């Protein structure tokens, strides 16, 4: 509690402690608030008082509204918030997604944003969820939901190159099967694993993701790949392209289990250095510019 | 479904075995996932919007051959279009799905066809045009004749279906499989470098790939 009440002090002086706290899991009762502090969405809201209400009153582009409406009843249908059509969660989800299409009309709505917004709404009111979504779309995963999916394709290539270092066996297998990263990482990355992992793991991954940024998503992806395709034994039953894809769609519950996954992700602290180094290589070697820098960096450290 | 068997349990016989990659393409919410789900699981339910791709397999034990269908079900939102070629690469067949109660999705199916025509020769891929959601007959915006006519001019298979009320779903998949087998026979009697070899489904790892590069 003290952390949240004296946030600026903690962020400035004891960022390590905050990171550790997030790795251990944020207590459920504080999670919603903590995510807003970590992402900087709290500050963003304060700087834009009234903006959400303003957007909320506008009608919106029918092109996007139509798509959003089609998707509303298709998000976490088993969660109490989204069980009844026209219910509270349902309406808030519509408001948040609609507001985003008005906030960034050039981006509009991407289907992968709905599960992200739904998870946020389970932890905070609509206005707060909206600004948190804005932070995710602009600071954490910039370009993921824009036209042509260029950012996600680029991150797919980065993931694959990192896999080469982390698990040469898995890397070789995927190369041999000619499986482009897009084929397996799109849903993982675009939905920040919210539709892949068991619920308790989703929350733990998001705690770390909000604190440390997109590198957590990379690490989770690498852990899953390594433990699914990382030994010749594991590869015996997925010799073909289709079998491999099926295996990556139906991951073993053991490796997605909260304690195992978080432990593995944390273990790869050493990896941070290599990660940054690799990003630098890409930047200079391929001059991929802005997106790479944003995507390789951690979450905004200093808020406000 | 009587013709379904699990891979690897087909009895010893002289019947050839084939593996085909099928890709489902079309606008969002036209029912691509629902069609696959109905066909493979014979059930209908609200499915999550597909992000990326999902997968289904169906093995058919027919009189003339054993056929394994690998169904790649793609995301329909236009944003994903730029990466879609990665999904339909090496496909043997495609279902172009539209919603009969939404004219726009029909126009979109035509655009998908153009895309496929750029990447495949006509004899490389079997394409079926599928007008889904006949259960929404009252809100119909695309007539059966329009669909039929377009399919005829382009040489596509055509069928209207309803994944919800289980109308002609099995039929459209079977029509595609029969067309694939017919072409297989045609090739056998007139061998070409593009012919596909047979594969024994009992042997794990044995795969066919057509010769396209």
UniProtKB/TrEMBL annotation, chain A:
Highest taxon in the source lineage: Eukaryota
Pfam family, one: RabGAP-TBC
Stretches assigned to the Rab-GAP TBC domain: 25-213
GO molecular function, one term: GTPase activator activity
GO CC annotation: plasma membrane
Gene3D superfamilies, sorted: putative rabgap domain of human tbc1 domain family member 14 like domains, Ypt/Rab-GAP domain of gyp1p, domain 1, Ypt/Rab-GAP domain of gyp1p, domain 3
Protein name (record): Rab-GAP TBC domain-containing protein
Phylogenetic placement of the source organism: Eukaryota, Metazoa, Chordata, Craniata, Vertebrata
Automatic annotation (TrEMBL), chain B:
SUPFAM superfamilies given in the database record: P-loop containing nucleoside triphosphate hydrolases
Cofactors required: Mg(2+)
Gene Ontology CC terms, in alphabetical order: dendrite; melanosome; recycling endosome membrane
Topology of the protein relative to the lipid bilayer: Lipid-anchor
EC annotation from Swiss-Prot or TrEMBL: 3.6.5.2
Keywords of this entry: Cell projection, Endosome, GTP-binding, Hydrolase, Lipoprotein, Magnesium, Membrane, Metal-binding, Nucleotide-binding, Phosphoprotein, Prenylation, Protein transport, Transport
Catalytic activity: GTP + H2O = GDP + phosphate + H(+)
GO biological process: plasma membrane bounded cell projection assembly; protein transport
Entry's localization field: Cell projection, Dendrite; Melanosome; Recycling endosome membrane
Main localization of the protein described in the UniProt heading: other
Highest taxon above the source species: Eukaryota
CDD domains: Rab5_related (cd01860)
GO molecular function: G protein activity; GTP binding; metal ion binding
NAD listed as a keyword: no
Coiled coil location: none
InterPro entries: P-loop_NTPase, Rab_GTPases_membrane_traffic, Small_GTP-bd, Small_GTPase
Family from the record: Belongs to the small GTPase superfamily. Rab family.
Protein name: Ras-related protein Rab-17
Lineage: Eukaryota, Metazoa, Chordata, Craniata, Vertebrata
